[in-house]
Specification:
5 helices, alpha/beta, 244 residues, eight-stranded mixed beta sheet, 18% strand, two-stranded parallel ribbon, Rossmann fold, binds NADP nicotinamide-adenine-dinucleotide phosphate
Length: 244
């Protein structure tokens, strides 16, 4: 599955309690080439095998992200996947029109979708293996592409992911100097049947609504095919690059 990496992989999954994160964890746990998986989530998850270690994280708190990173004492992580994110929450519904914009709701989306992954990058990128292929991949979204926006709506979610994409690009430039073998990317998982997409699935055709299993398989294949030249890019589940 991850044949382009060295053997005995050490992997971090942040957001392991989510629809995509949970599925990713299960797949990695079944992969013989994976030696250990450090999982981080806000809701507690039960460890599924003895190669999985579980820790708490609230990505809206820098202290919590820093503390979470301190559980990893070696600097040889091969792959970090950030699978956190929100589209809706208690009292937060994606905007349909300009009059729906609400500063508190906007702030909440930026905190989780933009600032959270930036804080994770700050404390976790230094843990990447600096000698072999290593990857820091954050789940972004195609709707964060400014070029692709032809429908409008969902202003805060789109803006939070567009800003995330800029953070990914910026971080990739510095990381190319400090850890040249590390690849920093954003990934679009497709429209996936999870709690995040549940309220918005009715107009999606069956073929376009992916199971977490299908999406994760595709994303792992994209990660496996990544090369140094891809760092800073945003890639969809089918491996195609998405314009910012
Ligand atoms: N599903 C889709 O169709 C789709 C499409 C495009 C992009 N994406 C992106 O894919 C990513 C994962 O989405 P999903 O579908 O798996 O959604 P999900 O099932 O709702 O999972 C979201 C995850 O984010 C975590 N999270 C939220 N706030 C957090 C915080 N403050 N601290 C720590 N963790 C926090 C949740 O933790 P708790 O369980 O503890 O709340 C959960 O693990 C998101 O970035 C999303 O934007 C999804």
């Amino acid at each position: 599955m991850l044949s382009s990496f060295k053997n005995d992989l050490q992997i971090c999954v942040i957001g392991a309690s989510g629809g995509i994160g949970r599925c990713l964890l299960k797949k990695l746990d079944n992969d013989q080439s994976v030696k250990s998986i450090y999982t981080f989530s806000r809701k507690e998850i039960s460890p599924i095998s003895n190669k999985v270690k579980t820790f708490h994280i609230d990505i809206t708190s820098e202290d919590s992200v820093k503390k979470a990173s301190s559980h990893i004492t070696n600097q040889s992580i091969d792959l970090i996947v950030v699978a956190t994110g929100i589209l809706h929450d208690d009292g937060i519904v994606p905007e349909k029109r300009i009059s729906d914009l609400n500063p508190m709701n906007m702030q909440k989306l930026y905190e989780v979708n933009t600032i959270g992954p930036a804080m994770i990058a700050k404390y976790f990128i230094p843990l990447l293996d600096s000698t072999e292929k290593s990857v820091f991949a954050v789940l972004s979204a195609r709707v964060g592409s400014i070029k692709d926006n032809s429908l409008g709506g969902w202003t805060s979610y789109r803006a939070s992911k567009a800003a995330l994409n800029m953070i990914i690009k910026t971080i990739s430039i510095e990381t190319a100097r400090t850890i040249p073998n590390a690849i920093i990317v954003g990934l679009h998982p497709g429209t996936v049947d999870t709690n995040l997409s549940k309220p918005f699935q009715k107009n999606i055709s069956k073929e376009k609504l992916f199971s977490p299993n299908y999406s994760v398989e595709k994303l792992l294949s994209v990660i496996n095919n990544l090369e140094a030249k891809d760092s800073g890019g945003i890639f969809a589940w089918d491996g195609k690059q998405i314009d910012y």
